[in-house]
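Lecture notes, unit on protein representations.

Consider one protein chain, 27 amino acids long.
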Amino acid sequence: FADTKHGRYNPKMHPIVPVTSWRKGSQ
């Protein structure tokens, strides 16, 4: 869900989950 590379999840548009959450999932 946190595919910033694919342009799927944009924190600027609508942060669904906390930065720490999607950041942890990305790594």
